[in-house]
Each structure stands twice: as C-alpha cells, then as structure tokens.
Amino acid sequence: MEAVAFKERENQIFVKGDKPFDIVCNKDSLAGAVSQRACVFCGSRVVLYPIADAIHLVHGPIGCAVYTWDIRGSLSSGPELHRLSFSTDLQEKDVIFGGEKKLAAALRELIERHHPKAAFVYSTCIVGIIGDDLEAVCKKAEAECSIPVIPVKSEGFKGNKRAGYQAACDALFRLIGTGDTSSISKYSLNILGDFNLAGEIWMVRDYYQRMGIEVVANITGDGRVADIQRAHGAALNVVQCSGATMHLADLMEEKYGIPSMRVSYFGIEDMAEALYDIARFFKDPEILERTKKIVEEEVKKLAVDLEPYRKALAGKKAAIYVGGSFKAFSLVKAFRLLDMPVVIVGSQTGTKEDYIELEAIVDPGTVIVDDTNPLELISFLTEKEVDVLVGGVKERPIAYKLGIGFCDHNHERKEALAGFEGMLNFAREIHASVMSPVWQFAPRKKSNASGAEPNERPGGTETIHSRFGISTAGGTLPTNHQRSSLPLVEMTAQGLCEQGTRP
Fold first, then answer.
1. Contacts 24+ apart (CB under 8 A), 65-72
2. How far apart are CA 80 and CA 177, in angstroms?
3. What is the pTM of this model?
C-alpha cells in the first residue's frame, strides 16, 4: 500500500485479501498522531447529554463546558435543560485551594433556579489532579435538594472516548432501579444508544407502537429521569450504539436479568431485521404479523423512490469513518443497496469482534482502519479515488479540501437517517453531495480503469426492486429531490426478512 502511516500504527490498518485478518484496536491513540477521537469527559457527555430534564454541570474550566455545549443534535419533546451548558469555571485560585465549595454552591443555585429531576456532575482532568471529592459533594447536595445528584467520573486523561462511555453507563446505572414498575407491560423494551438525532427515536418508537410493544425508557435520546428510574421493569434492552451503552445493558442483565439485543436502525435490511428480531423475541404471533405488515408498507413506499438514486450513483466509491463501528455495518449494506462500493471503512472505538464482522462483509481490497488520523485518511482517500466520505464534523474539512463529497453521519447532523424513511434521506444526501456541480472545479480523478461511465458499475444490473421481490417499472430521479409519485408496488415481507440476515 502506498498510503502514509506511522510505523507504530501499522497493525491498526488492514487491507482485505492481503493476508489473514488481524487488526489491533481499542488501545490508546498514538501520541502526536492527531487522533480523531475525543477524551473520556467528552465520551461521557455525548451519552448523558440528551437526558432533557436533568441539569448537566461540568466541574472544571470553562473550556470543557464550551467544548461539549449542545454537542449532539438531540431533540426533546418537552424540557430542554440539556441544551444549557453549566460550568463551575475553575480558576487558578480554585486549583490551589480546591473547588468543592464552588461546586456545592453551583449545585444549590442551579437546582433552585431550574427545578431539574436530577443533576449530573462531570469530573474533568483538573478535578482529577487536585482531588476534589465529587462523591461527597453530590451526596450532600442530594440530601439537601431531594433529587438524584450523580457524579460522573470522567477525568479526561483516564483513557479514550470509550472509557467515557463506561463512566456514563455507571452513572446511569445509579438511577435505574429506583422507580415504580408495576404498570409496565410484559411486551416492553428500553431503547439504548439512540440519541434522537433529528428526531430519529420518535420514528423508531412509532414502529414499536405499531407492533404493540411498550417503550419504557429512551436511553438517552429525548430521555426522562423518571423513565430511566423504572427501566429495570422492561422485558428487553434493545441496544443501537453498542459501544456507548452495551456496558449498561450488561449491568442491567447481571442485576435485573434483562436480556439485551444489538440492533441497527440504519438501512432497509438492518431496520427490518431489527423489527423482526424483536418480534421473534416476544414469541407473539400477533406482534409478528403486525411487524410483517409494517415492513411491507414501509419498503413498498421506499423501494421505488430509491431506484433513481441507485442508477445515478452506481459505481461511485464510498469511504466510511465513524465513531462506533456498529453503524459501519449498516452503512456498508446501505451503499451496497445503492451499488456503491465501499473502499475504506473504519471507526474510532471499534472492538476486535466488530472488525472481524466488518471484514466479513466488505469487498477484497477494502482498507479497514482503527482510530485513524488526518494524515492517513487523506492518503487513503486519495489513493482509492473516493467520491464521497461518510464521517463526522472533524472529517468534513478533509473531504472538502480533497474535492470529494461528504455526508455527516455523526451526532452533529440535522437530517434523520434512521428507519426506512432515513434510508431515502441518506440516498438523497449522498446524491446531492456526489453530484454537486462544485466538484467540476476540483482536480479530476483518474479515468475509470474499466472504461465504464462514471455512474455505471460494471455488471450492476440488479435493481432494488428485484432484491426485495418487488416487481415494478423503474422511476426517474425526482426534481429537486422531491419524493417520487410513482404507484406503490407488491412485495413479500418474508422475503425481506430473509434478505436482512447479518453475516
């Protein structure tokens, strides 16, 4: 490979087909490599932040609070306390003499002014160094104010972003088990790891409601303290972002005996598979029948509208670099549905098991990378002549400077990409970025070695309709990305269920 990489990172980069799969991951970032990862504190904040009726107080310098202020595009159907950024603003004097009194005073003032249902207090690097006793301060404030006041042990230097996820899960677990569960249905679940970006959790909850399943708690998108307190009464934990909340699911299974299931809500196949897996778990014929009807209705509306985008995008090369590796699985499948080969895929926090599964579903020659940095990413994108990069806010400037399209799939985005409707939004966004006329001013890529047209993938004649047992005439690309008005088509839900089996 011609790509540039630090020698110490060679074992975190793998090209499928070169040799037997082996990749090193889940380790501290190489010093000086300018990792795209965030710190432990940031990891805990992005998980807990969407709990909308709680105070989130950062005990540390003002910069830490600014860095994570409104960090997710998490929407709330009610209170919006989570969108306010509170900090104790530690100064030099506090570092010398301690900041416990300042923290206690801040908690009293905020609780009196905003009347939250709970308060989360985040420890930062400087607090870990000077040794403020957050546990004692929070315990005293909880007794005085009669609401849960929970310390989050998130000193930034303790590890990487993944360690922050664990700190957030430990804090959440202190809330769970303190609420009344008497009215919860036996057909019930908790949604873990969905942060309600652009209202996605509302779409998912609607699917569950139509299936006849009660959602006890959103953890944490559009989350409420009272719901989380009674989450131990649910029959199942459904985990979307496994890196962020799998630790919490494990804790709940160990203490309360609640089984968990990993799912993905991105793409047609994985969304359908998630609904079917949950329906099978409850072993209720009526729930399974309602699930089949939902999948049939949703895919029937979607398949015709997707086909014009597939025709336009076929053969364009995609690269994926996301925070959690689990969403990368669904993105690979989503691009395959659009006939777009994925030539680079990686994540910030993937595990060995995640990468083994990822390697099994990508094509030979695909670069798999853990915890990459701008130097490597630029080199890979250039070498593979990528047309679009899916990533987060830190990757956007890299893509644009190289003259390639970009799709934001991280927590800052404002476009709903989950669920069946989200797949259409995803296709529209990819098309708008890849086909933008601005790229005519960027350096041209090498001509296609196969001689095929830029939007033609050799041998790619299968349509979305045929993949899912749908028979219809093809559509045309909607003007200004409006929904196609073509008639609905026939399909079999069972065929889709079989199609969506994870390797």
1. 65/89, 67/42, 68/41, 68/42, 71/42, 71/45, 71/46, 71/411, 71/412, 72/46, 72/195, 72/197, 72/411, 72/412
2. 24
3. 0.86
Output the DSSP codes for 67-114: HTTT-S-B--SS--GGGS-EE----HHHHHH-SHHHHHHHHHHHHHHH
DSSP for 35-67, written as a single string: -S---HHHHHHHHHTTBTTEEEEEES-HHHHHH
pLDDT in tens, 274-326: 999 999 999 999 999 999 999 999 999 898 999 999 999 999 999 999 987 77
Q: Secondary structure of 331-381 in the HEC alphabet?
A: HHHHHHHCCCCEEEEEECCCCHHHHHHHHHHCCCCCEEEECCCHHHHHHHH
Q: Give Cβ neighbours of residue 333 (< 8 Å, ≥ 6 apart).
A: 267, 269, 270, 361
Label residue 383 exposed, middle or buried (CB < 10 Å: 0-12, 13-18, 19+): middle
- Kind of pairing between the strands at 118-123 and 54-59: parallel
| 1 pLDDT above the threshold of 80 | no
Helix (H) / strand (E) element for 320: namely strand 318-322
Say if residues 161 and 42 touch (Cβ distance below 8 Å): yes
What are residue 131's DSSP bridge partners? Answer: none
Look at the alpha carbons of 59, 62, 64, 67 in this order and tell me if their dihedral is positive or negative: positive
Pairing of strands 236-239, 342-347: unpaired
Tell me the residue type at 341.
P
Closest to 392 (Cα-Cα) out of 37, 81, 24: 37
Residue 476 backbone zone (phi > 0: left; psi -120 to 50: alpha; other: beta): beta
At 362, the amino acid letter reads V
Tokens of 113: 């002014």
CA distance 216 to 205: 10
CB neighbours of 101 closer than 8 A, spacing ≥ 6?
none
